[in-house]
Amino acid sequence: MDQIRLKNIKTKISIADILIYFVAGILGILTVWPFIFIFSMSVSDPAEAVRQSVWLFPKGFHLDAYIRVFQNSFLWISYRNTIFYVASGTVLNCIMSVLAAYPLSRKKLYGRRLLVKFIIIPMYFTGGLIPFFILITKLGLYDNFLVMILPYMVTIWNIILVRTFFMGIPEALHESAVIDGANDLLILSKIIVPLSKSILAVIALYSAVGIWNSWFYAMIFLPNRNLHPLQLFLAKLLVFEAPNITNANQEMLELLRQQQSTVLQMKYAVIMFATVPIMCMYPFLQKYFIKGTLIGSLKE
Amino acid sequence: MPKPENGITSILVIRNSRTKFLCKNKTPLQLIWRDRYLYLIILPVLIHLFIFQYLPMFGLLIAFRDYNIGDSLFALGSDAKWVGLKHFIRFFNSIYFTRVIKNTFLNSGVLILFGFWVPIAFALLLNEIKNKLYKRVVQTLSYMPYFVSTVIVAGIVLSFLSAHDGIINAFLRRLGMERIAFMNESRYFRPIYAISSIWQTFGWSAIIYLASMSAINPTLYEASKIDGANRWQQLRHITIPGIIPTISILLILAIGSVMMSNTEIILLLYNPAIYDTADVIGTFTYREGIRYGKYSYATAVGIFTAAVNFMMLSAANRASKKISSHGLW
Cβ contact (<8 Å) for B60 and A297? Predict the structure, then answer.
């Protein structure tokens, strides 16, 4: 009887509902279409690409553009550089964030308010680009790979996130550890850190994505192409059109000149190369990002 | 080994401490000693912040000097070549002053005017979708552009709008129209900048609004349904008022960052042909300071920017407090 009753309750679908679903769907497709288009163009038949008849789906399947692109050694060098910068930067950032957040989360800390002010002020007031540039140069970090790691070891936003998390850990845990004779170092390393895996995952992701996508400071401080991160390599290829970004020899340049059409395909292939890893990972990681954003914004 | 009674007493002492957690018989020095490990733990971060955040703040002083790269950053005496407000005055009198200020305000203003409400509308739209799977899929697709770098976004925009092999021009030609050199004509820059920024951020910004919406008390909706409210009335009287605090804060922050107007993406999208619409304070500072080496001048511009920025932030905060009694501080 109950089953029959449930089946008879029809959910009314109004015109407004249809409209809403339609508009939302359109927005979703529009947002994603550029990526689909780029993918299709990058694997299509060069002749079709020239005629610009590719709109949504690939016409033909040619990996030619990718093969050419993969022959560029600077692509791989930059990729390796970025992986190194991301790995070291993320680990260091997590460590520094925890080191700062833990003392600030202890209410009993003498001088706590002063320390919090010291940490927060640079978030609102900064020296700006030029003094930073001069400082880096004076420190001898110009054209040095360390410039991609050292300045980013401390992110105030991450410190706030971790501190909020630490402040949520029950005080009783601390008290019992203190009674058992532990000092702060032990408490931090043996109790707090093992409990913090979730928040560390959040800030590790923030750091990783931020460093992965960064290029501006590399552009200013790293003239050496062997130290470029991936995004800077892309910037020089896609945007600044630096003439000798490839280590192509004369023969390849001739090939390129003859087949102008596939230069665009190569650009799209490079975009795909840089974007697909993130595309594959972010749906699974989005819940961490959202969590971090919400904690951070609620704190504000 | 303390006797059990003593142990219980000490716990009671901890629990009965005042908020400052100061035991009555400890001097500041003793407190510092008690917390010595905590200070040790935080020390590396303090040093780092001092070097990379506070020293540059001190370096702002070069705006009042004639600084060359060989000079010492910290010189304070007469060998520091103090020139007072010379660089500020030079900037105010420069022919680029009006152009740069105007562009900064217009570019950010257009972005706020058209882009601020897109995430809100999108969040409201998503909120109305009952099928959870559909909602999640659309949402996931919507913030895909947020995770790619500005370089990729710029690369996409530039190649799509390219005059000879861009897809947009191909589309125009299909319609029988002439090709347009989008990136060479000033009047297209602002829309291009606005659209690409909105595309990149609207899905992500919607998250905050959706979170606010989910914090609205559901009994409000139930009560309104009993009173016969339809979906639009619910939207107007429950949902939107429910997210007004969030909107206020984010609007203040948006206005407060008008002067910053996302230098990175503009740097990637602009070229000398369209400087008269595209050049903003951030890109101007970059060019004058890093490329041309006019350090003092560019720093003066930066200080001016930060000052105006702060004034706008305060004004926006005050206005918001008056209108909706919500503010940032």
Answer: no
Considering only CB atoms, which chain A residues are within 8 Å of B52? 132, 135, 150-151, 154
Rounded CA-CA distance A129/B286 in Å is: 8
Q: How far apart are CA A184 and CA A182, in angstroms?
A: 7
ipTM of the complex: 0.83
B 106-165 residues with CB < 8 A to A: 122, 125-126, 128-131, 134-135, 137-138, 140-145, 147-152, 154-156, 158-160, 162, 165
Largest CA distance in chain B: 96
B176 touches chain A (CB under 8 A): no
Per-state percent for chain A, helix, strand, coil, to nearest 5:
75, 0, 25
Per-residue model confidence as pLDDT tens digits over A202-261: 899 889 988 999 999 999 999 998 999 999 999 998 888 754 444 445 555 555 555 544
Pairwise CB contact (< 8 Å): A128 & B60: yes
How many helices (H) and strands (E) chain A has is answered by 16, 0
Cα dihedral across residues A247, A249, A251, A257: positive or negative: positive
Judge whether B195 and B156 are in contact, CB under 8 Å. Answer: no
A225 burial type by CB count under 10 A (0-12 exposed, 13-18 middle, 19+ buried)? middle
**Global pTM value:** 0.84
Question: A73-105 and A197-212 helices cross at what angle (nearest 10)?
Answer: 140
Check pLDDT > 70 for residue A269: yes
Of B289, B271, B243, nearest in space to B122 by CA: B243
Residue A264 binned pLDDT confidence (cut-offs 50, 70, 90): confident
Tens digit of each residue's pLDDT (9 = 90 or more) over B177-197: 888 889 888 899 999 999 999
